[in-house]
Amino acid sequence: MRLQTLSYRGDRGLSQPIDVALDSSDTLVLAFGASRGDLRHALRMVREALPLSHMVGCSTAGEILGSEVSDGSLAIAIARFERSRVRSAFALALDASDSFAIGQHLGRALHAPDLRAVFVLADGLKVVGSKLVRGIRDVIGDRAAVTGGLAADGMLFETTWVMHQGVLGSGAAVAVGLYGDHVEVGYGSKGGWDIFGPERSITRSRDNVLYELDGKPALQLYKTYLGQRAAGLPATALLFPLALRSGHGPDNSLVRTVLAVNDPAPSLTFARALPPGARAQLMRANLDRLVQGASDAAAMTQAGGALLGGPTLSIAVSCVGRRMVLGERTEEETEATLEAMHAGAKQVGFYAYGEISPCAGIASELHNQTMTVTTLSES
User: Cα(340)–Cα(1) distance, rounded to whole angstroms?
Assistant: First the structure.
């Protein structure tokens, strides 16, 4: 595999010339960009330089290139596979209820006996990520890992976009399939949040909308814990995600974060469904543990060959909530993921509204408030 990573900023242009020799039908191009501002010219420029490649990307809450986090830019990775195949597919959702169906569509488009991995990006506000992943897995099964993330819109939570072959759209999802015995895929996902307060039962919810915990308005509970920060909802709710447990024992918990609030209802909208009867517990940040969690996520990828020493692309997808909490320490987690790789690895990624990865024996699933790392290399 041959790699190039570079960036684009409107005031500076490309950080280096695009290596057009990397263009092929088995080349993957990732482009993660700002949700605001016109990046279409830059995306057209990349597409024109690499017309044969599979080019996908999405809007972000911060672009990752190496260990640096930027805003208002494009972070670009170009990976030409020498002994592996690459395919891509696009699907449009007319409504959030279509999320499972478009997952099935992507799964059917990419399914093949030698499929090794799927990397998927989706609109972070109009596509239900958990249903999307279940739709893909419904077709391809669990033999191929599904990783990726949900597009973001900074802290605004208004509109996001995904991109396929240089064309931007909202309410959509795009996926890339990697095929063959030579592609090596690693993945890891870790949080680092502290659980606090009593465990509560979800007594009223509908899909991903939460109304009551222990028979009391869930929104009021959040406002109580947020205090003066409640005026900044929904963004400040990122400081207090939920640990959701539907099985037995803490290892079966998943982290869920708030995307929107509805005061008249009153209700909170999360990134995935919260089934009635499940147990939920509030979480809060521990900065050192968040950074260590990022390092642990990167270390988990070694099973996929990320530490063998050959050319390796590390794709880091972290939650917007982690960036909000870490503040000036944000780049500590991107440094931690890169330091866990060998010296020749290159890293690209973005801050997201949801992260997709297998984790701790759980099949590929949507996570919130985690650092998720996918590594790609060839044997």
Answer: 20
Query: Is pLDDT at 251 greater than 60 in this prediction?
Result: no
Helix (H, G, I), strand (E, B) or coil at 47: helix
**Region of residue 327 (phi > 0: left; psi between -120 and 50: alpha; otherwise: beta):** left
Give the Cα separation of 117 and 132 in Å (integer): 16
107 within 8 A of 146, measured Cβ to Cβ: no
The fraction of the chain above a pLDDT of 70, given in percent, is 95
The answer to whether residues 341 and 299 touch, using CB atoms and an 8 Å cutoff, is no
Give yes or no for a contact between 298 and 188, defined as CB atoms under 8 angstroms apart: yes
**Beta strands 68-70; 73-80: pairing state:** unpaired
- pTM as predicted: 0.87
> First CA to last CA across the chain, in angstroms?
9
Residue type, 242: L
Which residues are within 8 A (CB) of 347 and not within 5 positions of it... i.e. 6 or more apart?
Answer: 5, 64, 65, 66, 67, 313, 314, 315, 316, 334, 337, 338, 341
Q: At 63, phi and psi to the nearest 5?
A: -100, 140
Cross-strand partners of 279: 201, 245
Of the given ranges (175-184, 208-217, 363-372), which has the lowest mean pLDDT?
A: 363-372
308-330 residue pLDDT tens:
668 999 999 999 989 988 999 99
> Are the C-beta atoms of residues 89 and 140 closer than 8 Å to each other?
no
pLDDT at 83: 95
The distance of Cα 310 from the centroid of its chain, to the nearest Å, equals: 25
